[in-house]
Design brief:
mainly beta; six-stranded antiparallel sheet; 802 residues; seven-stranded antiparallel sheet; 3 helices
C-alpha cells in the first residue's frame, strides 16, 4: 500500500536534521553538513550561495604566509601578511604602498625599463604597479627594482618584448614591508594581543616583541625592552653574585657555574635587606661624608662634602639630590637594582648594563658591589637563557600577561597595572603578578584569553585566573586559579565568539565551545563537531570569527578546504557547511577585519599557475550585494571591470593561462582563457566580473515522509514533484542527484533577450524525473556566477509499504 506525503524542508541553521521519535538523528545531521557545499546558512531562515572572493594581491614571491588582523578602530583596520622574515600590510582591499610615483614610459625590452621622474626607489625595493594604459601586463603586479637611476629603474627579470606597447599613465608605489626574524614555520605559532596602535607578539623561540603603527605607511617592529622583570623566584642556593660597580657597564661574577651564552639579553636582579645593611636616619646625628642611611624604604648617600649634623627633617625625595638643613642627601635606590646581560665571558662571568627602574634610577644596591659584598639575594630574568620565551599573551584587567615558557610552561607573568612593559615584583596591589599553576601534571599553557575571568588554555586542561570573585581584581596577593575543563587546546589561536570561547582541541579534529555556566559557577564545554564529525576529520589549522552580517565561524581544514559554522547560540542556530574554492584552491590562512556593514574575511589561497606556485590573498565579497544583478559577484580570486562598454578586459595577470567564468552586465558569459593578462568578450559590457568558477550545492537528507506502519526510512520511495522557494535568485539546477539535473528557467517570454534576467523571489514548480529508491533526495545546484538563496524545498512523494 502506498502513502502519499508532502514534505516541506525549511532550511534554518542548526536544523538540518529531522527529528525521529523525539530524538536528533546525529548520522543524518552529519550527512546534512556534507551536502551544503558553498552555501551559507542563516538563522533567520534559508541558505544562500556564498559570495565570491576578490583578488587583493599575491604573497611575496608566492611564499606561504599567515594573515593576521590589526584593528585600531572599525575605520582603521589592516590585514598583516606574515611571511618568512617579513610583514606586509593590506588595507581597503589592496596592498599598502608608500606614496606612488607617476610612470611616464616603459620600454619593450629585456629587462623592461620604467621612467618615473625622481622616483626615489632603491635597488631591491619591491614596487606595485597599477593603472598603466597600453602595457596592461604590468598592472596589479609587484616587481623588484634594479639598476635604478634618478628617473628610471629596471623591472628585475621582466622581459616585456612580447607585451603590448605602453601608451600612458600608471603609478608605482614602494610596498610597505617590515623585516622580522620569524621563519615561515614560526609565523603560525605567533600569539598576539593588541592595545590601540601596538600589537604585542609572543613566540616560544623569540623575545616578546611589539609592532607599532605610527601612520598608514609607517610601522616599526621591536623587541620589548621591559622596564623591569619578570623574574624567576629569588635564589635559594648557596651561589653568590657580586657586581664590579653600581652603575653603567659592570661585570657580574658568580661563585659557581651559572651563565651561558644564551643569557645575553637576560636580566639579573639584586636585592638588599635594608634593615640589615643600613642604619636608619636619625635626627640631630653627626653624619660623615659618603655615609649611607635608610629611611622609609629608601637608601640615601650623604654628599655634602664634610661631616654635618642632621636636623629634624628626614630625606624623603626619590631622585637626585636634595638639601635638608646643612646636609645634602643623594637618593640611591630602594632595596633592589637590576642589570641586563650584554656579553658572555664564561659560566661565572658576564658583562651587564645597569638599567633604570620604574622611577628612572639606574643603580645597583650598594652592598652588592665588590668581591667583599657577595650576596645570595639575586634573581634571574624569567625570559631568555635556559628559560625560553613565552608562547601565550593576553590583556586582562589592565595588565599584559605572558605565559608558557619552555622551562616554566605552567607559569603566568602579569605586568604592573596599566604599565604593560613593566614587571617590577612586589606586594602592592598594582605590582607585577607571578604565579605557577599547581596541578597533577604539567600543562603547557598554549593560550591566554580574556573573558569574565582570564582563561588559561593548556595542552590538557582549561583554567581560569581571577581575584576570587567577579568583583575583586587580581593582585599579587589575591590570585585564584581554578581548573574548569579537561579538553586541552591545540596551538591554533582560540577566538571569542559572543560570550563563548571557541577552541580547537589538541588533536585538531574537535571544536569546543567553552561558556560560563551559572549553575556550576564555572566553565562548561560543548563539542560542536559532534554535529558533523566528518567536517573536521583530518584536522583544522586556522579559524576566525565573523560577526557581520551573520554570525559565522570560519575554519581552514588541513586539506585546504574552507569550512563555515553558522553560530548563533542565542537563537539556537548551529550548523556546518563546506566551501571548496574554485579551481581547487588550497586555503592556508584566514583572518577578518571590520569593513563597512560587514566583517571582511581574508584568505590566503595556494594555487599552481603556469607551473608556478603562488598564493593569492583574497577577501570574500559581501553577502548582501544590493538589488542590482550586475553587482552580483560569484567568482573566486576575481576582479571587476567597471567603465565604458568594451570587449577587451585586461589586467588579469594573476590568472594568466587560467579558464575563467564571467558575469557581464548581470548575465552569464561563456568561459574564457586568460592570455597575456586579458580576455576578449563575445559582446560588449560595462560591468564585468571575472574569476574562477565554483559550484554551490544543496542536497536534502533522506526523505522522511512517514508510512502506514511507522516511518519511511529503509522503504522504497519516489519523489514525483518538487516546489522550490527562492529569494533574489537567478538560475538553478534541480534533480535527484548531481548527474541528473535539469536547469530551471528564470527568463520568460515577457523579458527582453538583450537584458539580464532580473532576480526572482517566489516558488518554482519542478517536474521531478526521479526513480524508486530508499533515499529520495533532492539536489539543487548553482554553477553560474549568479545568486541563489533557497528558503524551502517542498517534495511530493510516495512511500511504498511492504
Amino acid at each position: 500500500m502506498a502513502r502519499v506525503s508532502t514534505i516541506i524542508t525549511n532550511f534554518r541553521a542548526g536544523e538540518f536534521s529531522p527529528r525521529l521519535e523525539g530524538r536528533i538523528d546525529l548520522q543524518k545531521y552529519n550527512e546534512a553538513a556534507k551536502e551544503l557545499t558553498n552555501m551559507v546558512s542563516f538563522p533567520q531562515g534559508g541558505i544562500t550561495r556564498r559570495p565570491g572572493s576578490y583578488y587583493a594581491g599575491t604573497s611575496k614571491d608566492g611564499g606561504k604566509v599567515r594573515l593576521m588582523n590589526f584593528e585600531f578602530s572599525d575605520e582603521q583596520a589592516y590585514v598583516l601578511e606574515f611571511g618568512a622574515n617579513y610583514i606586509r600590510v593590506f588595507k581597503d582591499g589592496g596592498i599598502v604602498t608608500e606614496a606612488t610615483k607617476t610612470i611616464t614610459a616603459v620600454t619593450k625590452a629585456n629587462p623592461a625599463v620604467v621612467t618615473a621622474s625622481s622616483h626615489g626607489f632603491s635597488n631591491g625595493d619591491r614596487v606595485y604597479i597599477t593603472g598603466v594604459v597600453g602595457m596592461t601586463q604590468l598592472n596589479n603586479r609587484e616587481f623588484t627594482v634594479a639598476n635604478q637611476t634618478t628617473n628610471t629603474f629596471e623591472l628585475s627579470g621582466i622581459n616585456s618584448t612580447g607585451f603590448d606597447t605602453y601608451s600612458s599613465a600608471g603609478a608605482a608605489g614602494k610596498i610597505v614591508e617590515i623585516t622580522t626574524t620569524y621563519s615561515v614555520t614560526e609565523i603560525f605559532e605567533i600569539n598576539h594581543a593588541q592595545s590601540a596602535d601596538v600589537l604585542f607578539l609572543a613566540h616560544k623561540s623569540h623575545e616578546p616583541a611589539k609592532l607599532t603603527r605610527t601612520s598608514h605607511t609607517s610601522w616599526t617592529l621591536t623587541d620589548i625592552d621591559f622596564i623591569d622583570g619578570p623574574y624567576l623566584d629569588e635564589n635559594k642556593t648557596a651561589t653568590t653574585l657580586y657586581a664590579s660597580a653600581d652603575t653603567g657597564s659592570v661585570t657580574i661574577t658568580a661563585s659557581a657555574d651559572l651563565f651561558t651564552s644564551a643569557d645575553i639579553g637576560r636580566l639579573v636582579r639584586f636585592r638588599e635587606v635594608l634593615e640589615i645593611e643600613y642604619d636608619e636616619w636619625q635626627a640631630s646625628t653627626s653624619y660623615a661624608n659618603n655615609v649611607f642611611v635608610r629611611f622609609n624604604g629608601h637608601v640615601y648617600k650623604h654628599v655634602t662634602g664634610s661631616t654635618q649634623t642632621s636636623g629634624n627633617t628626614p630625606p624623603v625625595h626619590t631622585s637626585g639630590q636634595e638639601t635638608y638643613g646643612s646636609l645634602v642627601w643623594e637618593y640611591r635606590h630602594d632595596d633592589t637594582g637590576h642589570a641586563e646581560i650584554t656579553a658572555f665571558t664564561d659560566a661565572r662571568n658576564v658583562t651587564a648594563t645597569v638599567k633604570e627602574d620604574d622611577g628612572g634610577i639606574s643603580v645597583l644596591p650598594h652592598n652588592t658591589v665588590g668581591s667583599s659584598n657577595t650576596t645570595t639575594k639575586w634573581s634571574l630574568g624569567a625570559f631568555g637563557g635556559d628559560q625560553g620565551f613565552p608562547r601565550a599573551i593576553a590583556f586582562y584587567e589592565e595588565r599584559l600577561y605572558f605565559a608558557g615558557t619552555s622551562a616554566r610552561p605552567q607559569s603566568i607573568f602579569g605586568s604592573v597595572s596599566a604599565d604593560f612593559e613593566n614587571h617590577t615584583p612586589g606586594t602592592n596591589d598594582d605590582d607585577a603578578i607571578n604565579i605557577t599553576i599547581a596541578s597533577d601534571k604539567v600543562n603547557v599553557i598554549n593560550h591566554l584569553l580574556p573573558a569574565r575571568f582570564l582563561q588559561i588554555l593548556t595542552t590538557s586542561s582549561e583554567f581560569t585566573l581571577s581575584g576570587g570573585t567577579g568583583s575583586e581584581p587580581v593582585t599579587p596577593t589575591n590570585v585564584n586559579v581554578l581548573r574548569e575543563t579537561t579538553f586541552g587546546s591545540s596551538s591554533i589561536r582560540p577566538v571569542r565568539a559572543g560570550n563563548s570561547t571557541i577552541l580547537i582541541q589538541k588533536g585538531g579534529e574537535r571544536v569546543k565551545e567553552i561558556t560560563f555556566d551559572l549553575d556550576t559557577d564555572g566553565l562548561l564545554g560543548v563539542d560542536l563537531t559532534i554535529l558533523a564529525e566528518h567536517v573536521a576529520s583530518g584536522g583544522l589549522t586556522d579559524m576566525v570569527w565573523q560577526q557581520e552580517p551573520e554570525l559565522i565561524l570560519w575554519f581552514v581544514h588541513a586539506n585546504g578546504t574552507l569550512i563555515g559554522l553558522t553560530y548563533d547560540r542565542a537563537n539556537g542556530a548551529v550548523g556546518w557547511h563546506q566551501h571548496p574554492l574554485g579551481d581547487s584552491g588550497v586555503v592556508e590562512s584566514i583572518t577578518a577585519i571590520p569593513s563597512g556593514t560587514e566583517d571582511q574575511v581574508y584568505v590566503s589561497v595556494k594555487r599552481t599557475i603556469n607551473s608556478a606556485t603562488v598564493r593569492h590573498i583574497c577577501y570574500l565579497k559581501p553577502i548582501d550585494f544590493g538589488s542590482d544583478i550586475e553587482d552580483a559577484f560569484f567568482v573566486d580570486s576575481g576582479l571587476t571591470y567597471a567603465g565604458s562598454d568594451t570587449t577587451s578586459i585586461t589586467s588579469l595577470n594573476h590568472l594568466e593561462g587560467e579558464t575563467v567564468q564571467i558575469l557581464a552586465d548581470g548575465s552569464a558569459h561563456a568561459d574564457k582563457t586568460v592570455t597575456n593578462g586579458k580576455v576578449t568578450l563575445d559582446r560588449s559590457a560595462g560591468k564585468v566580473h571575472i574569476g574562477y568558477s565554483y559550484n554551490s550545492l544543496v542536497e536534502t537528507l533522506r526523505l522522511e515522509g512517514g508510512a502506514d506502519d511507522g516511518i519511511s526510512q529503509g522503504k522504497i520511495k519516489r519523489i514525483h514533484g518538487v516546489t522550490a522557494r527562492f529569494l533574489n535568485s537567478v538560475g538553478a539546477e534541480v534533480g535527484p542527484d548531481t548527474v541528473n539535473l535539469d536547469r530551471i528557467p528564470f527568463r520568460d517570454s515577457s523579458m527582453s533577450m538583450d537584458t539580464a534576467v532580473p532576480m526572482f523571489t517566489g516558488d518554482k514548480e519542478i517536474s521531478f524525473p526521479s526513480g524508486y529508491d530508499n533515499d529520495a533526495r533532492v539536489v539543487v545546484q548553482q554553477s553560474q556566477p549568479l545568486p541563489m538563496t533557497i528558503l524551502a524545498i517542498m517534495r511530493r512523494s510516495n512511500t511504498f509499504d511492504a
